[in-house]
Amino acid sequence: MTDFRRWFFTAALLALSTAPASAQVGIKSGLPSGGPLFCMATAADTPELRPEGYTELLGDIMISCIGGPLSQVGATIPTATITVYISPAVPITSRSLAPSVFTGSFASEAMLIIDEAGTTWDTGATGGYGPQAPQSLCTTAQQQTNACAAQVGLDNSGQYQVAVAPGTSKPAQNVFQGAVGVFGYNSVTFQNVPVLPPAYQGVSRTYRITNIRIPVPGGNFTEVVQALVVSQGSPPTALPMNSTAVSLGVVGPPGRSKATSMLAGGGNSCTPQTSPTLAAQLTFTEGFAQGFKTRVIPGGAANLNPYNNTNTTWAAEAQNLVSPANQNIPGGLYDGFAVNSESGFILPAASFIDPTSNITYTAGLADFGTRLKAVFTNIPAGVTVYVSTTSSAGPAVPGGTSVTPYAVLVAASQHDEGKSDGTAFAPLTSTTVGSDGLFAYPVTADNSGVTAAIWEVVNANPNAIDTLTFSTYYACGTPANLSPPSVALGYAPEPGGGFFSTVTATEGLIEPMPRFALQALCANNSCGLSANASLSFSYSIGGTAPPIQVVPVTVIPSILPVAVTPLVTTPGGGNWLGALLDNGTLYVAVYPWGLVPSFNAYAAYVQLSAQDLSALVPVSLTVYPQSALGIAMWHTGNLVRGEQGATYTIVVGNGASSGPTSGPVTVAENPPSGMSVVSMTSTSSAWTCTTSSCTTTSPIGAGGSYPPITATVNVASNATSPLTNVAAVSGGGSAVSPSASDATTVVPFTCTFTGGATPTVADVQMIIDEALGLYPPAFDLNGDGTVNISDVEIVVNAALSASCIG
């Protein structure tokens, strides 16, 4: 949205007249507004930001005010300190124009412009005030001492209240320089800004904040960059405005590049140096329209902004050394967005000469347009690499007002990636013609076989995704068959060339602008992305979450940026899938809570994307109903008072229409008085048992059961009858924790069969005969269903003690 159309939106929102939102821009009705001063912050535009950029230019912030009381002519205008905080918090990388007077901060190129000064709008006010006033800079040092104070005055007609310099009729200073870091590295502050209430109906006042740059790669941004605008007035009501968050940028897709080698008609052979042979083509593609930018608004581009001003002086060749500086028109920045300008609001009055390098740095002025870089490695000795000096046989250099995508060669070394502010634009030229008809320039390899080529964009189409293609040639002293050297493609400058050491410094004098993150882009078709896996998760309602699963991912080269996108494909499934790629490992987690149970799996996949590459990891999740455990227990025969080592069998199962168990399952014995548990055991290793309980973590599905458990008990000599043994099961995510009981008859102990009150040898012999089968088994003393050696032991022990009363 252009500034002019955005103003109408804001004006309607504030129920203003249709006059532009600037002090004295509207024609007043002659009546005071009668209302309190009201101010609101909005975004003038929300540009797309390159995810590779360390100095991405955000949209402007517009603070619009209406109403307020009429002021007394000659009175000092109240002031406000306005601070902008960037969220997420990242250091502001706007160009520094020397250290600020504020401790630990920097006077920067970020500017606040009052009433769109310099637009020359005809507002009805006379005498060169408001938009018709010349831009007058108030530095951070002046702000600190309130040296830019203003008084209430009248325009030449006496109809409008205007801000004037104290004791004069001259317009007050109207451009305030921002100090970065006063309230944190992600802040920029404008101190003691005069706030004159518009007062009249149909009139508003604006404060435009511009030239805020941030590092997108260091911010972990997912989509939108926001700013929080805070005002502290003197008095507090000087600029009444709630803390307002505005969106200043949307992170766009990354750029793409690749190298296509071994073209038909050449590429294998190295020919004599006088005839460079085409070996490869390098392509760079914008991630979004306006990703490639010229240094400033192309020269001669008429009527691109709402103020009907042209930029005939600061042309695409970007020397920008003389006035008039037409890109210092407030809002012209958005023509910059529209026609792809790396520079922002340019203010020649805000400049700094570095005493060490003697370089002049100008507020808003970038060092160059977008630069594209190719680094060649493994170049054999005796081989010369050439590159085309242009992306095509396009328009003359500089590009002028054309929107045909075009770039020219500006450097043949990766250590010469960027030029400082003010350096003349000087493309590299050649008279040598490559085999495809383009001019070819030699890029000489160093002793390690490395060289580079850097092209600068001079034309771009703001309404299309541009692709720029450059040719690479080989030549050598004697004919030879060659394999193409390796080549890495990306933006320049970036830290790989050693041109700058830090990516988030607020000190922006010695570092080039713009600058970019080190990229790993596809070259020689050598990029690769694969993840060969299919993942299956299951969850039963009420159970524990399934553990995270991992998938090895192959990324070539390893620093190639890879986007991870979880996509659920089952309708109504919601967002139950999460994924994270870290150091070649994909971590996949599911969040099944709230999903409807179903024996049919929910389907999804994790999509991995890089450049023109992609890989899919299918994922399924089955959400079962809650498990429903059951338990059974039984024994054989009667128990005998004093019996040792009697046994019970316990079996645990799951319901036929239930989900699988999840988590530990525990079985515990609860014997009655007169019975004690000796041990709990199982022939299966699935169970881990103690004296009176067994636990398993093995899941069982619907209708399944665990291996049986044997509980061994002793019966007291005075036990009553019957005794009811109880066992219970719990856990496994089960909706119930059931128990099982077994009522068991306990009989008295007896051991005399031949008469008399005490056991004799005859009684022992009788049991032995029954155990040997000589007589029917009539006396099963321990109730185990047969007469055996255990019964013989009972009678022998009784005979030795001369007692068989149980």
Number of helices: 5
Ranges where pLDDT stays below 50 over 5 or more residues in a row are: 1-27, 262-267, 300-325
The separation of the N and C termini measures 102 Å
Q: Give a short account of the largest sheet.
A: 12 strands, mixed
Mean pLDDT: 81
Instruction: Give the C-alpha Rg.
Output: 43 Å
Coarse structural class = mainly beta
Strand content: 35-45%
Give your account of this protein's structure.
The structure is a single chain. This protein has 806 residues and is mainly beta. The protein has 5 domains: 3-251, no CATH class; 256-497, no CATH class; 528-624, Immunoglobulins (Immunoglobulin-like), CATH 2.60.40; 629-747, ntegrin, alpha v. Chain A, domain 4 (Immunoglobulin-like, Sandwich); 761-801, no CATH class. Helix content is 6%, strand content 36%. It is built from 5 helices and 49 strands. Strands 1, 2, 4, 5, 6, 7, 8, 11, 12, 13, 15 and 16 form a 12-stranded mixed sheet that branches. Strands 17-19-27-23-25 form a 5-stranded antiparallel sheet, with no helix packed on it. A 5-stranded antiparallel sheet has the order 44-45-42-47-48, with no helix packed on it. Helix 4 (761-772) runs antiparallel to helix 5 (789-801).
